[in-house]
Design goal:
single chain, mainly alpha, two-stranded antiparallel ribbon
């Protein structure tokens, strides 16, 4: 009988170890699933706004300089070090900031600016955006720090849907060109 006590005791210890290990793995899986559910919203514009709000003015300026130079890895590293976010979150934030540029806002004015964010009032970005349209030998360029991909995309959509006057008006509102110059530019967008 004594010869069976030691192997039985070993089996009980091993079974308890396996049960505790399974419980620990289960907890980790639940925690990672909860962390995945608490991830930032899938709206890239909102992600860009949130990411920009975490940066100081100098960090914001340096990050956009790196993005403009095409140094994505350095931009991710800068964001990672500045915010202590994870690598994946830093990558997503920099991608959102590159796709949806955000002007620097002081922390006190960030909430007020978000409430006042309206398509009719142009905002100034910390970089100049260049839009180029050409047809045949004619080429026109508009360069403005009140344009970005999203606004220019809306202007192109207006022009392609036939609302050339609305597109020209929107272009003058977001740049420093005259209505006549905007009409010439929009005329080159027609496909």
């Amino acid at each position: 009988m004594e010869s069976l006590v030691i192997p039985a005791f070993i089996m009980v210890v091993v079974a308890a170890g396996v049960a505790l290990g399974a419980r620990a793995i289960s907890r980790r899986l639940k925690a990672s699933a909860a962390a995945g559910a608490a991830a930032p919203a899938s709206d890239p514009v909102e992600l860009a706004r949130t990411a920009a709000a975490k940066l100081t003015e100098d960090q914001h300026r340096r990050l956009y300089a790196l993005i403009a130079q095409g140094q994505a890895m350095a931009a991710i590293k800068l964001y990672y070090e500045a915010t202590d976010a994870g690598l994946r979150a830093s990558r997503d934030a920099v991608g959102a900031l590159a796709a949806h540029p955000q002007p620097y806002r002081t922390p006190a004015s960030a909430e007020a600016a978000q409430e006042a964010d309206d398509d009719d009032t142009p905002q100034r970005f910390p970089y100049r955006y260049r839009a180029i349209a050409s047809k045949g030998d004619v080429t026109r360029e508009v360069s403005s720090n009140m344009l970005n991909d999203e606004i220019y995309g809306r202007i192109r959509t207006l022009a392609r849907s036939g609302d050339t006057e609305g597109a020209a008006t929107a272009l003058t509102r977001h740049s420093d060109i005259t209505l006549k110059q905007a009409r010439e530019f929009i005329a080159l967008l027609d496909d």
